Amino acid sequence: MSSRKGNVKSKATKKAAGKGTAKASAKKATAKKASAKKASKAKAAKTTKKAAAKKTKPTAPPVATKPPHTAAELRAIVSRYIAAYNARDVQSILSLYHAKATMSDPIGLPPAVGHKAIAGLYQMGFDMNVSIAHDGAVRCAGSSVAFPLIASAPTSRLEVIDVFDFGRDGKIVQMRAYWGPENLQGDLAVRQ
Amino acid sequence: MSRRGVQPGRGGAAKAVRAGLTGPQMVELVARYIAAFNRGDLAAILAFYHPRATMEDPVGYAPAKGHAAIRAVYAGGFRQGVTLALDGAVRAAQGAVAFPVEARTPTARLWSVNVFDLSDDGKILRMRAYWGPSNVEGEVSVRG
């Protein structure tokens, strides 16, 4: 479905190089210089932008282009994950995650990055006495899996959809939890 | 799942004035989307999408980019007689909403989780439908 655009710029440059008088080519050289200057400026701007983006938005390792797990394996991983969560088994949970994975829980807050931060987030749930259970079918889509769940604490109930994206090594590179205030019944202890 | 707090208190004033749809508005958007889908109303469906939106349905395949390509995906679904129904609670997060759906054709049932990333003015910037062959009962053609 995606269409690749041809490299229009390089085509035009080639055309220009093939003809013209000395004067014209001198003019072109100046133009080229100017455009090179422009390009380097744009590049610099891009780099700054990139650096800024890196600072504010940590990027997860890449999602695998070839699915590292079958659908059956994805379901087994989700089952193991839920069991490990309810057993407060942080090590088993972390073993599912890439060392540089990001975890956005909920989406909209800055993600936890890396095992240590991710472990901290889980510990917070454990401290609130949260346990989790399926709330519908596990959806297996290539290198990703999405599953609705209910997170219950003694005085509250929260509807969540979790999405795991997997990297080439089969580890979770990005975890996203979708939920908001409307999905909460009762009162969940809130970290300030 | 740690389930961090969602009260407006967290994040302070910056959060409170943050632009974008509220949770109830997102829930309503999903309801209107499903209604438009079940009417086969292409124009209404496209009106939910930003002109440069991308649509991955299912996730893992090349996305459809822009209205024309997205229209083609929906038109294909409508030709197959697909209808949608919610299959659980809508989860409205900050700037994004996820919801489980069951899609039906005359010959198949399919379970998907759909995710919309939304712009501040409530347009879908990115649509992702999470499902695969293991979520299909009966016969349906997977877009390639």
Can you walk me through this structure?
The complex is a heterodimer of chains A (192) and B (144). Chain A has five helices and eight strands. In chain A, strands 1, 2, 3, 4, 5, 6, 7 and 8 form an eight-stranded mixed β-sheet that branches. Mean pLDDT of chain A is 81; it is low at 1-27. In chain A, a hairpin with a 2-residue loop joins strand 5 and strand 6. Helix content of chain A is 42%, strand content 25%. Chain A is globular, with a radius of gyration of 25 Å. Chain A has helices at residues 8-17, 22-56, 71-86, 90-95, 114-127, and strands spanning 97-104, 112-113, 131-134, 139-141, 144-153, 156-166, 172-178, 184-186. Chain B contains four helices and eight strands. Chain B has helices at 13-16, 23-39, 42-47, 66-79; strands at residues 49-56, 64-65, 83-86, 91-93, 96-105, 108-118, 124-130, 136-138. In chain B, strands 1, 2, 3, 4, 5, 6, 7 and 8 form an eight-stranded mixed β-sheet that branches. In chain B, a hairpin with a 2-residue loop joins strand 5 (96-105) and strand 6 (108-118). The longest helix of chain B has 17 residues, at 23-39. Classes of the chains: A alpha+beta (192), B alpha+beta (144). Chains A and B meet through helix 3, helix 5, strand 4, strand 5 and strand 6 of A and helix 2, strand 2, strand 4, strand 5 and strand 6 of B.
